[in-house]
Amino acid sequence: MAQKKESDTLRQRKHAQQEFLRLKKMQSGELDAGPKPSEVAVPLTFGEKLKNIWYHDKFALSAIAIIIVAITLLCVQCATKTVYDATVIVFTHTITGEPNCQKMGEYLTPHCPDLNGDGEININVVNCSINPKDKSDYSYTNRSKVQSMLATEASALLFITDKDSYEYLMSLSKEISLFEGEPLQFEEDFYEFCVDESGFFDTPKDLQISCRTIKGAAIEKDKNVDKYYSQAQAILDGLKNKN
Hints:
The protein is α/β, with parallel strands linked by helices. Helix content is 49%, strand content 9%.
């Protein structure tokens, strides 16, 4: 029994000496001490992982978020965008307010066919009214817009004009008559209806509506021009026969 106890004591001394020698070697650099306790990786919590991702990738994540928002807004706008059945150009030599133009579209709506078949009638009235004495960029832009639509926009066949602006447009074409027949004059109820309720703009008097000539024009080649023309004629017929 005494011999066994002595043997255990020797083993403990021997182990202590080995540990002492190992510690000396670590201190002298002869033996790798291994990582410090503070350097040992500790599993991160879910919240810590999120913070770590945001810290390293916040710019990329922000860019992705902006792209997602932009795509969402674009989809919403496309889904809610008004699909117009007709386009009417207002080109007068008196400045006409946007509210008045909107009312003009509403006035024409009962006579407009549902061209796109969505169960609603929506007329896009493009305001290109100018003051002919004005030489500003606004006047130049509206003149250019009218000429561009005359040349390229097959859906824009109806033009609301006054006498002076009508003569100006007719002077643009030397080879063919720009409009068919004689302009249709609006009756008094048109001016009573097309009122800017704010009172800021007045609807010009002596307005008329005309249909573009298709034959011989560049828009004649548009594959949809026949249906646009039929629609324009339906609106004009409705105005003529409304009483």
